[in-house]
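STRUCTURE:
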């Protein structure tokens, strides 16, 4: 039964990603909103919904290993695996504003979480816990990000394909496609995670490791499917904006809301995992900023993917 849930969830995720990309892109084209802004907001929030639901419910139930591990693992997966695979499928050219404003926010979110999770290591003597005050600080960061993104939407140039020859679908159909796509991503992600987690627990794997690997990869499948499909369809703004927005949503909103509901001990999520996340975000920024004219190339994608495989191998080997 777990295997059936896993395969059914994967099918729903792929179908949902295709519908969400088509609907969101069409709405953006109709109103002259850039694909990047759509990727940073509507698509990012929709594909982060599985992380939000799972981490929030895990926090309420006291499964803090899954609550934090899900976000940390998902963000590592987003940067190393999703950007890596997407760049391998099709090199991603990004706008200058992404490298000067948006990706630095991704780095800031990772460094903020590293600082909050490294209290004893930094010498303040406190326990390794994401407190309610930390959660409120993360939520404040999230409001700043949203204000910036909406300000960017007002000043950004119209979507480059706003006058494309392809006629737009009716507005109601675009909205319906977005809603059905989100539903497919959310329900598919939950089915996949439920099946994969059932298999893992039957093998006696810890909550922290499940959160960092199986749950993280499962809840990030919407981001993976959406980014790959967007890149194939020539929508680099949605492809990269989805990853950036999802990483920011996951730390600032998902962990912020979860920690505000209930303080989250880091437990088996060590400083090494938080350092890997921070280094992955920094590498993501450096690759885009300093090589090949703001393009994530196939060799860079391969390096990111190899780094994720090495990290996962380390987790499994340390059992």
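SEQUENCE:
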């Amino acid at each position: 039964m777990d295997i059936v849930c896993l395969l059914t969830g994967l099918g729903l995720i792929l179908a949902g990603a295709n519908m969400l990309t088509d609907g969101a892109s069409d709405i953006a084209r109709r109103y002259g909103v850039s694909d990047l802004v759509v990727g940073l907001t509507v698509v990012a929030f929709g594909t982060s919904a599985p992380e939000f639901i799972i981490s929030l419910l895990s926090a309420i139930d006291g499964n803090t290993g899954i609550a934090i591990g899900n976000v940390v693992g998902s963000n590592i997966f987003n940067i190393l695996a999703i950007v890596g695979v997407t760049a391998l499928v099709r090199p991603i050219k990004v706008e200058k504003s992404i490298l000067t404003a948006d990706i630095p926010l991704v780095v800031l979110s990772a460094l903020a979480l590293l600082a909050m999770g490294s209290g004893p290591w930094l010498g303040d003597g406190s326990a390794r816990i994401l407190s309610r005050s930390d959660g409120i600080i993360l939520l404040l960061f999230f409001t700043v990000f949203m204000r910036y993104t909406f300000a960017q939407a007002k000043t950004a140039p119209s979507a480059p394909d706003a006058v494309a020859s392809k006629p737009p679908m009716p507005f109601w159909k675009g909205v319906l496609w977005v809603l059905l796509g989100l539903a497919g991503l959310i329900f598919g992600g939950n089915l996949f995670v439920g099946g994969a987690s059932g298999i893992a627990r039957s093998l006696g794997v810890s909550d922290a490791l499940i959160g960092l690997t199986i749950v993280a990869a499962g809840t990030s499948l919407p981001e993976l499917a959406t980014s790959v499909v967007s890149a194939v369809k020539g929508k680099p703004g949605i492809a990269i904006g989805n990853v950036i927005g999802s990483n920011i949503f996951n730390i600032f909103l998902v962990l912020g809301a979860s920690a505000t509901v209930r303080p989250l001990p880091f437990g088996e999520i060590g400083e090494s995992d938080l350092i890997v996340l921070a280094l992955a975000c920094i590498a993501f920024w450096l690759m885009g900023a300093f090589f090949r004219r703001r393009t994530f190339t196939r060799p860079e994608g391969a390096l990111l993917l190899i780094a994720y495989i090495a990290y996962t191998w380390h987790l499994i080997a340390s059992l």
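REMARK: The two ends are 27 Å apart (CA to CA).
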